[in-house]
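User: Okay, second chain of the day. Same drill as before: sequence in, structure tokens out.
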Amino acid sequence: MRLLRNIKEWFFEKGGSSDQSFSYRFTGKESRLFCWHFMTVIAELLKYPDLDYKREVKLYALAFMVLKLRNAVSLYSRVNINAADVPSLKENCRLFLNTAFLFTSGGSQTVWTIGYVILIALRSCSMTSGMAWG
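Assistant: Same drill. Structure tokens below.
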């Protein structure tokens, strides 16, 4: 609840602007719960009565980014990845990157790493193992 209150305050009172980024110190338990229930937070913010169109679009974009990030991390963090999963990983990374650049400030090293470097690392590993995944 404390996290949701802080997010609401930042998003609605401070405008959710890129010049004043959101900061919150998670405990281990809070971090896990937030990952499991992120869409609940988005749903609560969408219920806000004074939500304007610009912020609503930003919330939907953020939800889409998080889903694509979750899918990409799920595929990339596997010990063994099938050649059939590689196109899905590429698509999830590309959609995450594009959405981040279109709807958020998006210029962080983390976003760039997920969008490009993961695919370069995968290509490098595939060359080393002798599998041509492109």
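The chain has a mean pLDDT of 79.

User: Thanks, on to the next one.
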